[in-house]
Amino acid sequence: MAVSPKSRRPSPPPAATRLLLIRHGEVESRYQGKFGGWIDMNLSPTGRRQAKILADYLLCKTIDAIYASPMKRVQQTLAPTLKLNGHGQTILEALREINFGDWTGLGWQEVEEQFKFPSHEWLNQIQSSGAPNGESGRVFRQRIEPCLREIIARHRGQNVAIFCHGGVIRMVLAILLKLPLPKTNHFDIEYAGVTQVALHLHLAEIELLNFTPWRDLVG
Fold first, then answer.
1. pTM of the model
2. Spatial CA neighbour of 123 closest among 113, 110, 133, 108
3. 24 given a catalytic annotation
4. Could you say which of 26, 97, 135, 165 is catalytic?
């Protein structure tokens, strides 16, 4: 028997894909307040405590897959989570932090004095030309975007954790929210912070921005 058009129920919308964008914990003291970039530094003792608290928090989250930068500060942040939830990880070289070139290892004031621009405009500099001998915003995006699109395509309707770096998270948000990279300076991306983005059919929605589960527990 034919079914009348009026009796047909609309199909439910596809489930959102959710990305948990997780920055590594606090780094060792000699690199704090520096443009770390490709320096392969360790976590500080505080960063290791942040990583353990983060792992406990993530137990309440459904996570279908984990992707991570290969850099030590990210791997050390991820280790307690892998131990608790039994997940494996996929390491992607493309998720490394941006290469800061000649800024690497310098503090904000040093960069301002040596390269003659206000340090709060660092993302504008990255977007326009990048640090000397480093990656420009265009080159950085060409590295991050294919990686991001592949992760999303592999895990439609699932929840994916991406353990990475502040610069990577800013670029991911710029891509998903269709923002110029310098606009992400309005977002604070803290050590061991969690930002959750739901990807609906025609909309990327921030559900959690820079949540720090360790905030009241680490002195």
1. 0.92
2. 108
3. yes
4. 97
